[in-house]
Specification:
By secondary structure, this protein is mainly alpha-helical. The protein has 2 domains: about 210 residues, Tetratricopeptide repeat domain (Serine Threonine Protein Phosphatase 5, Tetratricopeptide repeat); about 120 residues. The chain is built from 25 helices and no strands.
Length: about 450
Amino acid sequence: MQRKSLIIGAAVLASVVVSWFILAQRHPEWSTDNPAALAEFELGQQAQAKIYWDEAKAHFDKASELDPSFVMARLFRLLANEKRTDEDRQTAFTWLKKVDPSLLKPRERFLLGYYMARFDRNEAGAHQILLNYLNDEPDDPFALNIQGQLQVSRQDWDAAEKTFVRLTEVAPNRVEAYNQLGYLALARGRFDEGEKMFRTYMYLAPDQANPHDSLGELLALAGRYAEAREQFEQALRDKPDFCASFQHLLDTALLEGTASGIDSIIERTRTVGTCGDSMLLEMECGSRIFSALLTHDWEAAWNAGLGPCASSRSAFDLPRYQAGVRTGRLGEVSAWESKLREELGKGSSGSVKEGVLHHMSGVRMLAEGNGSGAALAFARADSLLTYRGLSEGGLFKLFNRQMWYEALTSSGQQDAADSLLKDTRAVNAPFAELMVQRASRLATASRQPE
């Protein structure tokens, strides 16, 4: 499991969480005189290390209640709780900003200063705080993990690998580091190395759900679907409400190119009762759009994003964008492109977002019959995408390649199409075969009379 961006929230807190045995070494110091609050705080960090978000939030809440003056408990509680209202968050940050840093230990001063700068959108200041602290404490696991996550966000894979390897050296049982090393290997297409890292992670944390979920992502991207499903199911046996694994079971079905079993996955997710309404809506709406696209029913795919689904992410996702283009709703979908261009103008160059924009251009040109132009656009998108997990671009990269292959074959570039097919087959052979089948079906459909 790997989430997308470094934001003030749960995804950011994941970058500073360490497991309990790391806290036991190096004599960590936290400013509280309440043993019960300290115990809850450390339990919260144990849960965060396992990616057990709800449990972590509950422990941080309890620690804050037991000692309202426990600064780190209140900071971690805030960062872990994305569901708090903007007013509640502002109140919490206002309290934290009034804290006298001189009363805190060095690591606490660092964490508070760093995240207050992030909250103020002072990224340069936050970065300088990180550098200064690492200069004084080069082996601090909190700071190393933040540094590694920032390097990942910049796609500086070599630097991130060096940082996380260092983290395993200074904190040998730091299981999160092996998880990150696995995803870094995937980002560079090193599937064997990634599998080794994830299995090391599993060995060090045999009873946790996330190692199985992470390995399952790799296996799904590699076309080893039965093995992937078994890993996701094991994650759910270890923790029945590990919601990411339900989403990844659904993603695996999408890769296989079948709607069979999707309703069952969604119903199981609903039965758990803790995965959230937004996730359920996203799964339901996304599956409807996907099912329509399987038969190239563009109108049905577009309509599947209306009604209750209009508030879901699927209503603005790439499959529905394709349906909008194919049904001539260019005015409606062009707003999505404009929003992306605006975001790219704010410094997202070289990111997945830029890849999405190239993909959109390819979709438009392919629908217009400009296969050569579309192939170039899809190639540009591919160069910006990696296999770094299902949700981090791996799923998108494979589906972009499917459309790239369609553009190449439709424009008569068979040698290039064969080369792309060979390269994709080396990653995921079953998906490569689906690429051929889908391109053939689409070509046949395009020749049918209106």
